[in-house]
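Forum: Protein Structure Q&A
Topic: Joint prediction for protein chains with partners

I've read a bunch of threads here and the consensus seems to be that you should model interacting components together rather than docking separate models afterwards. I'd like to see that in practice. Below is the full input, 847 residues plus whatever partners are listed. Could one of the regulars post the assembled result?
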Amino acid sequence: MTTGGSMYSAAEHGLHDKAEVAEAVPLWRRMLRMRETGLIVIILALFIGMSFASPYFLTWANIRAMSMAFAVDGLLVIGMTILLISGGIDLSVGSVTALAMVIAGWLFLNAGVDPWIASLISIATCTGIGATMGFFVTRVGLHHFIVSLAVMVIARGACLLGTGGRPLGLYTLPPEFKFIGQGAIGPIPIVIIIFFVAVIAFDFMLRRTTMFRRVFYTGSNKKAATYSGINTKKVIFLTTTLCSTLCGIAGIIYMARFGSAQPTFGVGLELTVIAAAVIGGASLNGGSGTILGAILGVILLSVVSSSLALLDVSVYWQDIIRGSILLAAVTIDHLLNKKRS
Amino acid sequence: MTPPVLLQISNLSKSFGPVRALKGVDFVLRKGEIHAIAGENGAGKSTLMNIIDGILRPDGGEIRLDGAPVRISSPAVAQRMGIGFVHQEIALCPDVSVAENIFMAATNASRSFLMDYKSLNRKAAEVLRQLSDIEPATMVRDLPISKQQLVEIAKALTLDCRILILDEPTAALTEAEAQLLFGIMRRLADQGISIIYISHRMVEIFDNCDRVSVFRDGTHVVTHDVGDITSSDVVNAMVGREISELYPPKQAEGDKTGEVMLAVRGLSDANRFHDVSFDLRRGEILGVAGLIGAGRSEIVKGICRLEGEVSGSITLNGEPLDTRTYRESIAKGVVYLSEDRKGDGVFLDLPIDANVSALRLGQVARRFGLIDAEMEAGQAERLGRKLNLKCGSLADPVSSLSGGNQQKVALAKMLSVNPQLIFLDEPTRGVDVGAKSEIHRILRDLANDGVGIVVISSELPELIGLCDRVMVVREGTISGEVSGADMTEENMMHLASVTGVQEETA
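Posted by a regular:
Agreed with the consensus. Here's the joint model:
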């Protein structure tokens, strides 16, 4: 080795190692390793098994019902996944979704506000709630868990206060508004179209844009992100706010679908949403997760619920089974990760 | 008469994935000796010590204690065998008292239901008296780093040990504190306790130890009585070739008149450093020495606007560097390589190419902020080649790489923005010898190309070998500067530890 060797001679060494650098793993191999593949296999297996167990399962009506069930929750799962990737968590999604319904419903019913304007006000309010949580987390320095726990309780209280605890029947909602939640283009419900557009858009953005790449950096290693010149507080503030905005949108869609505002809607929904994201590969430590995985997670949970209902399993068992699925998925993932490292 | 052998290690091996940290190591520790271990970062010293202390389990080989083969399966087992370990990193609970920290193990083993603070403080005071005037009831978080290091040592002294391992205990200590420690070490050795002493400082090894073993690249090279060997023999054994070849050639005498590219004047922050002034000339590599906790990293982070508010003036290439955030500093081409690679230098679980692009994502993005995967991979490949990065696929997570290659990824991240000025904090910590000299060569090439290079290192031989000039930081300010023939370990250690009072008498 010459002492005066420049980095260019080092580069020549590098050329020899080029072969080992560029050797790409074949696509099918990579796909096998992806967690999404495993989820798809499990979901397909459930479909095949259930189609034998119940003749009703594979009917259009049932598939449509199942899709409607996970489509709106899917919006919440998107927001939660992005928030989890940035290293946060939000327990208030169920209550804030309900609050979105109540605010829009109340404005429409009691103040005579146009339902579209009422919806915008409601979504803006939810965004404000998210921004407030983001403020407490990034500026005051509290933990996401505590802040969102408090907001979960406050938002639920506000729902009950605004409605006296009873659902607001919104019988006079104009049909074009109800169309968002109940209509269909051809055989495909609008709700499902909204869901697919959101999934594709967010999945693409998460994979490709610099904006969301910063979310991964922040969640993977907050300090390293700071040391890369990334404003991690801003990132966390925005992901926290986005999650609540999506709650607002989901709440409005639910209101259009039900034709009412239900103050007790979504109790325990946060757990389903977090479970779906985690089953789909999001880590509570931040830095990992995909929209596709999270959506498959929510589909899996929904198919399981629907199957259990069709098989006449008691609703009380359903929670036990869903909890067990979550535990199993996380355990398998943890063990696989350990093996890899 | 040679004292009996206490610990005998033969043919010990240990691998971490593809990296062979120990390749059939032999090592003999005699009763009552102070045995120095020398070797560069990544030579396998820490791995060996962690095996002796039961933190790691060897893949193969044999450990005999008092002639009988033993399996040291955990630190608790090691403690029962009488092995005590003072780690280089301080591992104390900051929110409890000094006394409780010292007797953590004893409290854990205690059968009594209630804590007896009175006797705890009394016993702690007895141990501490020989080391320092630390009050046993003080919270550890309120102590400066050097006192915390002394608490660590006190903690080890209370264990009734036969073998005491000290891993660079003086890195945070002043000369006076270090002398106290050496006195205690000698007394313990006279009582028949064997001490393994790890240090980068030749002076300490030759003044205070009986024998020295040199490690290189996972192998044991040689063991000698310190009387039979010179410090340059040890250094040559550590690096495996003549020292002059290890480091890239320095700046020629005639080139030392490059224009001043960075001028720092009267830089202070709230409490960790004050009135720091220095110049960096184009083409030179400036070293920064000092004890751990002296404020070296803080000064550099202050210049980069990574932490805290600073006052004073910084001029880069004749223009004031008036950035307010690190983001703005990066935009001006001023970057900082962190000392804690895994903690804040890289994103361990993200792919290599996503790490390299992190400082300026816009460079690998097209319209609408869409990242172009090919551009991103291309950037990583180009810089990876420049730095001779060895990896499987650029899509692999950084955690799959060895320490040296991880550091190259961190360095590639810095180079991706074509920096004008790079501050490197312990750039070769935990890096193997080969990668280390590659990194040194890269830094010299960058300096020759006109990039400003400032290197902080605790490894004094590295500063001497690599830098053209070294400034020494003591208690938050520059205490002196050495260059040329004055760049010796003794001079730097002296500048790093003398206090104002001693200066007057000197």
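The CA atoms of residues 87 and 285 of chain A lie 6 Å apart.
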